[in-house]
Write a structure and sequence with these properties.
Blueprint: E1 5-6, H1 7-14, H2 18-26, E2 33-35, E3 38-41, H3 43-57, H4 62-73, H5 77-132
Antiparallel strand pairs: 1-3, 2-3
Helix pairs in contact: 3-4, 4-5
Length: 133
């Protein structure tokens, strides 16, 4: 197992920018050691980066991700972290389902407006044709 990872290795592995990685460091989410100007990340930092990116893909905020990561290191540990994760998943799922319902309603409303506009165009076209005759 690799003892340290460089910023270049991690940015390439996770397809992120060095700026993103430095931002996570500034936010206290990862803590690389320094060798001169070079940042060296531990396997634990690598795992945190993976968790951060997964959390962001799922729509969690950095504060929510931090809360879950920090809980792992303190009581109640992994069990508490997993319970918190389940709570966050449930809340996120409900938020997405609400957005889905809103989108479906908006699409129905667009369909109605579109149908009305097409009907009116047909009426105007028929009226214009009779005016030309």
């Amino acid at each position: 197992m690799q003892r340290y990872f460089t910023i270049t290795q991690l940015t390439q592995e996770f397809d992120i920018t060095t700026r993103t990685l430095r931002f996570y460091e500034a936010q206290g989410l990862v803590s690389p050691t320094r060798r001169g100007r070079q940042r060296l990340y531990t396997p634990g930092d690598r795992t945190r980066i993976k968790l951060i990116l997964r959390g962001k893909r799922l729509g969690f905020s950095l504060n929510e991700i931090r809360e879950m990561i920090e809980m792992y290191a303190s009581a109640p540990g992994e069990t508490g972290q997993l319970r918190l994760l389940l709570d966050k998943i449930e809340a996120r799922r409900e938020e997405l389902l609400e957005k889905q319902r809103d989108i479906e309603l908006t699409l129905l409303e667009l369909d109605e407006v579109e149908a009305g506009a097409r009907t009116r165009i047909s009426e105007l076209g028929a009226g214009a044709a009779s005016e030309d005759a």
